[in-house]
Amino acid sequence: YLLHGLSDDYSIWMRRTSIERYASEHGIAVVMPSVTRSWYSNTAYGAKYFSFVAEELPALCRSYFKGMSDAREDNLVAGLSMGGYGALKIALREAGKYRAAAALSPVCEPVGSSFDGLLQSIFGSKDLPNEDNLLYLAQMQKNNPEKPQIYFAIGTEDFLYPSSRSLCKLLRDSGYDFTY
After folding, report:
1. DSSP calls for 76-121
2. pLDDT per residue as tens, the chain (180 positions)
3. Sequence-distant (≥ 6) Cβ neighbours of residue 4 within 8 angstroms
4. What is the DSSP letter of 44?
5. Helices then strands, each counted (H, E), the chain
């Protein structure tokens, strides 16, 4: 599952990367959903984007494509920016379903950032609910033997870098198989 960022949609990976070639070379399916600016969340106004991407879409894909595995070791979730946040959230909340998550320049602590107005419209509050808080989710999964492997990439000059440090420290200190 490959998740888009805030200003894009499912088509960005096809337009700006060689994802089709990589998928073909490795014999893998890549599912690229579009979730608008939802933060991969079940929103306060009723849209259930988290449920769609984490639960409904995998089941739908497996029903259409019988070769798609539901085995944890065969499922990965990755994303960029808002999609990196979504990938981490999905892998941490659904640890039994995903072996690994890759977060590329992810938003780690969206509250208290330039995203506050949008987030209040998504979550219905200025506070991030626990089920959408990466620090909380990582802490809750730290003793889970099925906690996901995590690959995390962000540049030191990225405006999101300062907010990533707390999550990276927690993942490292909590025994995650963590590549940074």
Report:
1. EEEEETHHHHHHHHHHHHTTTT-SEEEEES--S--TTSTTHHHHHH
2. 999 999 999 999 999 999 999 999 999 999 999 999 999 999 988 899 999 999 999 999 999 999 999 999 999 999 999 999 999 999 999 999 999 999 999 999 877 666 777 788 888 887 888 999 999 999 999 999 999 999 999 999 999 999 899 999 999 999 999 999
3. 10, 12, 13, 32, 34, 35, 79, 80, 82, 83
4. T
5. 8, 5
SS3 43: coil
Burial 46-73, CB ≥16 within 10 A → b, else e: eeebbebbbeeebeeeeeeeeeeeeebe
Other beta carbons within 10 angstroms of residue 112's beta carbon come to 11
User: Which residues lie below 8 Å from residue 168, measured CB to CB, with a gap of 6+?
Assistant: 152, 178, 180
Residue type, 98: Y
In what helix (H) or strand (E) does residue 151 lie, and over which residues does it extend?
Answer: strand 149-153
